[in-house]
Structure to design on (133 residues):
């Protein structure tokens, strides 16, 4: 699936995702993880310093569809109707709030997201649980 989001360079909604490395008609291109980070910092206005200072990290998580650490979690801002949104900079998949939930198989993989279904676990956690048996 390909999709386009706001480009951190030209700020037009022409950064193409899901078709190889993210790239924009303005000439900007980067690796999926590099572009995800650039997007969070520039478009969402979250500074790495602030995020780490507050004991957190950038809102980039593991994508349940492609297993890459390129899922940008765009939280709903306070007082806004708009729900959280998840954009994967690698596979281009966009999910809305409640289409993803915290995977309860977190363990040492840290918190990450899964599509809500049966076990509330992502494919990777289900597979590793089966390995344990
Ligand atoms: Zn651009
Ligand atoms: Zn993905
Ligand atoms: Zn999981």
């Amino acid at each position: 699936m390909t999709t386009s989001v706001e480009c951190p360079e030209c700020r037009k909604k022409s950064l193409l995702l899901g078709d190889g490395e993210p790239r924009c008609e303005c000439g900007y291109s980067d690796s999926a993880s590099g572009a995800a980070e650039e997007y969070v910092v520039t478009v969402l206005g979250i500074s790495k310093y602030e995020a780490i200072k507050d004991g957190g990290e950038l809102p980039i998580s593991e994508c349940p569809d492609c297993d890459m650490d390129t899922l940008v979690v765009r939280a709903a801002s306070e007082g806004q109707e708009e729900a959280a949104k998840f954009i994967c900079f690698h596979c281009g998949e966009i999910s809305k709030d409640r289409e993803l939930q915290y995977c309860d198989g977190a363990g040492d993989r840290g918190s990450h997201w899964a599509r809500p279904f049966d076990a509330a676990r992502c494919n990777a956690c289900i597979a590793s649980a089966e390995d344990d048996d």
The two ends are 35 Å apart (CA to CA). Residues 32-42 form the longest helix (11 residues).
